[in-house]
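FW: tagging you since you asked about this chain on Friday. Here's the raw sequence from the shared folder, copied in full. Didn't touch anything.
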Amino acid sequence: MSVFPGGEGPLMGDGPEPEDPQLDLYAHVEHLSRQEAQLLKIGEHERTAHQHERLKAISAELDRIAEHLAERARRLGRATT
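HL: got it, structure written out here
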């Protein structure tokens, strides 16, 4: 392997590896969770209407994701409840 860009040879394959959709989903959930935490730090009466709506949308999306994961766990026989 070369220390120069482009000199990696066969170890690099035919191009960049395809992105892992699971990593994208994980990053999306982490992003939503961070946004939710930031919005929750703002007092309920201090939030703008836009912030209230965004918090509601984030909550609904995280709930949908959690339900999909719970359904998947049930379907695969991995449910914990």
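FW: The mean pLDDT is 83.
HL: agreed, and The helical segments are 21-41, 49-75.
FW: great, closing this out.
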